[in-house]
């Protein structure tokens, strides 16, 4: 899928989690619902850091470009080192290491750890990166025509404001984990969810996605998971734009209403 569909599906998934959390008696305060949806929208672009023309690889200028090169090389090296007898030869790292459940969990856990131990600046940094990505993903072309610097400013100011709202008592820093010292521990959840939703989205496209790695399936360790071939579509096709994206918006709206106990 392309950036906007990944971001929309990520946000919709978090709003669905909000509905489930409300049903389970852990209702999200509204800032957690909103900030979580934005983080998931941003995190849903992150696995494509292994591809140099992806939104995330261009979003932070030379920094993300350099990071993209490292991630691509690392992914390719890991692929070569762990490939099973049934896995095909590859020439690059796209859609390998960063497109697995293990990567999603590691990145999410790393962000939770940073948020809990790193204090306010770590929280602000995590919010900034994901808000910039959310703007790029959700506003897409509108963000492309403006300058990168404006998008960064928008990300930085919204990160500052939203962290201020979350910090207030009962507004969100202690959602789900409320023991002393666990403020912002939940921040990794939308990050794991975003990456997983990205992987599922890619699995629906023609080439599939090796989500299960390193768990082997038959002779393959990088089995490209996906539905039967006839049900897959090409990235950016009409199915994605005319069917899936409106469906994500409707599902997200229903999820948000349920999460806030409106329905
Ligand atoms: Zn991808």
Radius of gyration from the CA trace? 18 Å
Query: Helicity level, as a percent range?
Result: 55-70%
The general outline is globular
Instruction: List how many beta strands DSSP finds.
Output: 0
Attribute tags:
mainly alpha, single chain, 263 residues, binds zinc ion
Description:
The structure is a single chain. The protein is mainly alpha-helical and 263 residues long. The chain is 62% helix and 0% strand. The protein has helices at 3-23, 30-43, 55-59, 61-82, 101-139, 141-145, 148-167, 188-203, 238-259. It is globular and about 55 Å long. The mean pLDDT is 93. Residues 47-48, 95, 99, 198, 202 line the site of zinc ion. The site of zinc ion has 6 residues, from α8.
Write the layout of secondary structure elements.
Blueprint: H1 3-23, H2 30-43, H3 55-59, H4 61-82, H5 101-139, H6 141-145, H7 148-167, H8 188-203, H9 238-259
The structure holds zinc ion.
Zinc ion binds at residues 47-48, 95, 99, 198, 202.
């Amino acid at each position: 899928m392309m950036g906007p569909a990944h971001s929309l599906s990520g946000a919709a998934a978090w709003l669905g989690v909000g509905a489930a959390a409300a049903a389970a008696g852990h209702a999200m305060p509204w800032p957690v619902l909103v900030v979580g949806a934005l983080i998931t929208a941003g995190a849903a672009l992150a696995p494509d850091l292994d591809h140099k023309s992806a939104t995330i690889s261009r979003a932070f200028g030379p920094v993300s470009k350099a990071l993209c090169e490292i991630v691509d090389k690392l992914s390719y090296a890991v692929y070569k080192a762990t490939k099973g007898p049934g896995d095909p030869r590859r020439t690059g790292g796209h859609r390998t290491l960063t497109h697995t459940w293990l990567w999603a969990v590691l990145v999410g856990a790393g962000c939770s750890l940073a948020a809990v131990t790193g204090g306010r600046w770590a929280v602000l940094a995590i919010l900034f990166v994901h808000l910039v990505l959310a703007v790029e993903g959700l506003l897409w072309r509108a963000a492309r025509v403006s300058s990168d610097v404006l998008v960064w400013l928008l990300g930085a100011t919204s990160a500052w404001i939203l962290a201020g709202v979350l910090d207030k008592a009962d507004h969100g820093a202690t959602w789900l984990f409320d023991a002393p010292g666990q403020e912002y521990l939940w921040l990794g959840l939308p990050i794991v969810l975003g990456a997983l939703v990205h992987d599922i989205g890619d699995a629906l496209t023609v080439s599939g996605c090796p989500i299960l790695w390193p768990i082997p399936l038959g002779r393959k360790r990088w089995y490209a998971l996906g539905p039967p071939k006839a049900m897959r579509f090409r990235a950016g096709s009409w199915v994605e734009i005319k069917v899936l994206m409106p469906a994500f918006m409707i599902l997200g709206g229903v999820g948000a209403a349920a999460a806030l106990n409106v329905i």
